[in-house]
Amino acid sequence: MSVKIALIQGSDQGSKEKNLDYTCTKISEAATSGANIICTQELFTGDYFCRTQSDEPFETAEPIPGPSTEVLQKAAKDNNVVVIGSLFEEALPGLYYNTSVVIDADGTYLGKYRKNHIPQDPYFEEKFYFAPGDTGYPIWETKFGKIGVIICWDQWYPESARSLALKGAEIILVPTAIGWLPEEKEELGEAQHHAWQQVQLGHAVANGCYYAAVNRVGNEDPIEFWGQSFIADFYGQIVSKGSINKEEIVMAECDLEKLKKHRQIWPFFRDRRIDTYSDLLKRSL
Q1: Catalytic entry in 24, 152, 209, 254
Q2: Quick one: residue 208, left, alpha or beta (phi over 0 = left, psi -120 to 50 = alpha)?
Q3: pTM check: above 0.90
Q4: I need a labelling partner for 47 at 20 to 30 A (CA). Which of 6, 222, 246, 270 fits?
């Protein structure tokens, strides 16, 4: 079976309502172009509010399922597409998660993934807002294939992608919000982007899967989000890639039958020496 992935690379439109409208429009556009699985960028209903610590963003959090989930469910059903949407979840007052919802092509809410790895850096103040995820690494068998989701900082940890692949994920989708800081860009900008892209391409190779990372674009003081959303095949080859600064839909075909055959002749899962990995459960050795 061949499926087409679409990534909605955009910028903050100024309000939750405008961002939802924009995203639903892009879902329809992508579906018209043949997309089967469509993924948003991280926290797509607003700006990347984690640049500072403030109590105001908590007012924008919502339950899951909730109002934004329902909007995405309708968009999925109307367009016969699988939708992955990244939202700010309120589990209860005082407990919040960075969460992605997964919706099947008939509009059915399949479940959610809560971001496991929570960063804490200047202008990426996520530990102030989000508890670490408690959903593990679920996968979903959708109309268009078995998919898994990780979110942004998760993408730097090979264990996250491996966990999804071992459960059968054929496609890993990664909502992201990452960019350059002005004081670092000249000296480190190229190296930072290279590291981000290369570590994820390695996940595609090591796990024999299609891998799709979707980033936002635009300047949100002081971050310059670097876009460059991409879809890679199981050889780690980028088959479609977005620009640095344009809103666009990044799309690519994924042949799941070829993926199956590839896994048969590159048997990484067969040759894993799981009896030698116990030290990985320790914080340090």
Answers
A1: 152
A2: left
A3: yes
A4: 6
